[in-house]
Amino acid sequence: MNRLEEMAMFVRVVEAGSFSAAARRTGMSKSLLSRRVAALEDRLAARLLNRTTRRLALTETGAAFFERCQRILAEVEEAEALAAQLDAEPRGRLRLAGPMSFGFQHLAPAVAAFMAAHPDLTVELDLNDRFVDLVSEGHDMAVRIGRLAESSLIARRLAPCRLVVVASPDYLARRGTPETAADLAGHDCLVYSNRSIADEWRLTGVNERIAARLNPRLYANNGDALLAAAEAGLGLTVLPSFLAGPAVARGSLSLVLCNHPVEEQAIHAVYLPNRHLSAKVRRMVDFLAARFGNRPYWDESLPPPA
Hints:
- The chain is an alpha/beta fold.
- The protein has helices at 3-16, 19-26, 30-44, 60-88, 100-117, 134-137, 169-175, 223-231, 241-250, 279-292; strands at 49-51, 56-58, 92-98, 121-127, 141-145, 154-161, 163-167, 189-192, 200-204, 209-213, 216-220, 236-240, 254-256, 265-271.
- It has 10 helices and 14 strands.
């Protein structure tokens, strides 16, 4: 038995006025309470109680010890209550990393809305397309897009990330609309250079996967650059729907090859596998999952996936 438990048992006996009354209040046996208090006295090498057949009386040492035990136990309860309160309301500093294009378009507005609801929270938002190591760089969590590598991090899916083939209506009017993956060889393509195989798009068909070879005209390591080039009529590109959806809605881009969709990815929140997840991380992850969801708002202008 630890010291706090010994103190609590001693205080309950004194407050109850007898071992019998304390046993009734605590649900413990009278003999067990008596043995625990006797063991406490032995450990302290001091008599705390004078026992008679009718009542208990504190010794001078016992009275001083009782007063301090009450104070210590009250402070422990106050500390636990404070910890519970701190855990319930996000506060302090939250370091969050995310990819650049998604961060500008969707994560930053979400973080702003979350901060408005929790004024005691400070956020450090790190937007960067490079891989961020949460442990070595001191981040609390990150938002990642695509297939996750094996790691000890906890991952929660926030939303699907559809990848769509798009081009401007002007480009399609000039060059025609591709109907099959093979047609891509006759078109200018705008490709994302951060992929391991930039000159290839992985499309799907009826129970098959198609590796479409491309004729790249532009390589770029940022989705916003590809979006701008596609809207300018420079060629076809593959974009995540969180970038392409608004452009499709305003008519500056059109979907093509809908019968051969690009393999879908996902958007995840990842965080360290702490035993007690902090309120700021838990509440932020819950908020993002609810805000984005399985049918995110940026897909509203798009037809359902094939």
